[in-house]
């Protein structure tokens, strides 16, 4: 079976450094820092008092007030970035087959704020009749995918992915494969997260996963640095429109890039720690390269998972060396989480967008806060300043708790 080509024709983003595509991209290439003290709740008793929050976002700019009240913030973010991606794709004229246009959209946690609020309501009243009739539909993590499908009337494949920090990349990978095999012509995909809540922050603190640099929060997200001490929580959403290549060309669509390969593997090792030497991550990148029909030397840039945790950054670096050998020192690796924080299930969405825009514009976003690299993290991480370079192929990596690994291979588009 001949594999159909898959193009990226629409992008939308709600992020801690910008609530639209242009602001997000400009924030990335100028090294904008989205981390600050938490404003959403009182952090007096919390070990971590900072995060990368969404700023100046009003869901009523995208949805009516009644609809907003019936959705959790993670769905607000998903709808907002989805609406922007749909408009960006030029599909607003509706000249497409809605039965051939699907949605795969994930969330690592789903409606955490709703779950927390409704739990408090029951705990305080002991009366289940006080629970909202929209509690379940606001909370469940598939609702972003469902609401996007309903909003746009898209009747193709429709479901959610949940694989911790690899969630969005799995959504993108599934959407890519469905178009490749001919099940759909268009797919909306990505992920959303809104987990800057008491329960989520407290839980990740209990896990000892978050940085606690409360005296210098803007320096806390520092991937590959010798002083990195944990990740910084972020929130937001990233949405991509994928389209069968000939379908895109026939309607004169703006093509940002192509997806040419995916690599999906499991560590089968530990619930939180990566496999030793980044073994699963290495296989994931190798599979993406093999699937794309290229050689490791063809890859110019890796948008790293780069969480700013001791184990991830070291093992991802080792995995890159395993896959690329001497070429590992010639390509550029950077972590945009240094600016956005870690969006958990939405990370792969905004990082795929960053990777696509890097290819299109020939600019690699920097890894900010990289003051003194870990001696074992000795690759070119574009420290502090964006790098201009012609790029042909780039990989976006995401690795999640549970041993979920996903690598997406993008190719620069040339007419």
Name the descriptors:
Peroxisomal Thiolase, Chain A, domain 1; 14 strands; alpha/beta; ten-stranded mixed sheet; 33% helix; 2 domains; 13 helices; 415 residues
Structure description:
With 415 residues, this protein is α/β, with parallel strands linked by helices. The protein folds into two domains: 6-250, Peroxisomal Thiolase, Chain A, domain 1 (3-Layer(aba) Sandwich), CATH 3.40.47.10; 263-412, Thiolase/Chalcone synthase (Peroxisomal Thiolase, Chain A, domain 1), CATH 3.40.47. It contains 13 helices and 14 strands. The protein has a ten-stranded mixed beta sheet with strand order 5-4-6-7-1-8-14-13-9-10, with helices on both faces. A two-stranded antiparallel sheet has the order 2-3. It has a two-stranded antiparallel ribbon with strand order 11-12. Helix 3 (73-88) crosses helix 6 (143-152), helix 7 packs across helix 13 (347-361) and helix 10 (279-292) crosses helix 11. The two termini are 25 Å apart. The model has no long low-confidence stretch (mean pLDDT 98).
State which percent range the strand residues make up: 15-25%
CATH topology of the largest domain: Peroxisomal Thiolase, Chain A, domain 1
Query: Termini distance?
Result: 25 Å
Structural class assignment: alpha/beta
Say how many strands there are: 14
Instruction: Label the CATH architecture of the largest domain.
Output: 3-Layer(aba) Sandwich
How many DSSP H or I helices? 13
Tell me the number of structural domains: 2
Q: What do we call the CATH homologous superfamily of the largest domain?
A: Thiolase/Chalcone synthase
């Amino acid at each position: 079976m001949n594999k159909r080509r898959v193009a990226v024709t629409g992008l939308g983003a709600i992020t801690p450094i910008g609530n639209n595509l242009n602001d997000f991209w400009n924030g990335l290439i100028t090294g904008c820092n989205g981390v600050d003290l938490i404003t959403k709740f009182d952090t007096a008793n919390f070990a971590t008092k900072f995060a990368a929050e969404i700023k100046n976002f009003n869901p009523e700019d995208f949805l009516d007030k009644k609809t907003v009240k019936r959705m959790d913030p993670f769905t607000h973010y998903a709808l907002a970035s989805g609406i922007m991606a749909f408009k960006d794709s030029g599909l607003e004229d509706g000249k497409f087959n809605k039965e051939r246009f699907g949605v795969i959209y994930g969330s690592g946690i789903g409606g955490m704020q709703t779950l927390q609020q409704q739990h408090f309501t029951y705990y305080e009243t002991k009366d289940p009749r006080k629970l909202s009739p929209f509690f379940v539909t606001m909370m469940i993590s598939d609702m972003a995918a469902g609401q996007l499908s309903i909003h746009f009337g898209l009747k193709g494949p429709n479901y959610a992915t949940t694989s911790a920090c690899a969630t969005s990349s799995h959504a993108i990978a599934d959407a890519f494969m469905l178009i490749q095999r001919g099940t759909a012509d268009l797919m909306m995909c990505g992920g959303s997260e809104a987990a800057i809540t008491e329960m989520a922050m407290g839980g990740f603190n209990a896990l000892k996963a978050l940085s606690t640099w409360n005296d210098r929060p803007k320096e806390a997200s520092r991937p590959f640095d010798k002083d990195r001490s944990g990740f910084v929580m972020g929130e937001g959403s990233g949405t991509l429109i994928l389209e069968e290549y000939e379908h895109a060309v026939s309607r004169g669509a703006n093509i940002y890039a192509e997806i040419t390969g995916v690599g999906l593997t499991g560590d089968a090792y530990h619930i939180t720690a990566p496999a030793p030497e980044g073994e699963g991550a290495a296989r994931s990148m190798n599979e993406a390269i093999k699937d794309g029909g290229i050689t490791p030397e063809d890859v110019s840039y890796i948008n790293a998972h780069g969480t700013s945790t001791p184990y991830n950054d070291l093992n991802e670096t080792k995995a890159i060396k395993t896959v690329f050998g001497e070429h590992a020192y010639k390509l550029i690796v950077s972590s945009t989480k240094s600016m956005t924080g870690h969006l958990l299930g939405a990370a792969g969405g905004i990082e795929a967008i960053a990777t696509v825009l890097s290819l299109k514009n020939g600019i690699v976003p920097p890894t900010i806060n990289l003051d003194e690299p870990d001696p074992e993290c000795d690759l070119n991480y574009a420290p502090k300043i964006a790098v201009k370079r012609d790029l042909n192929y780039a990989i976006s990596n995401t690795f999640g708790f549970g041993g979920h690994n996903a690598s997406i291979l993008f190719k620069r588009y040339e007419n």
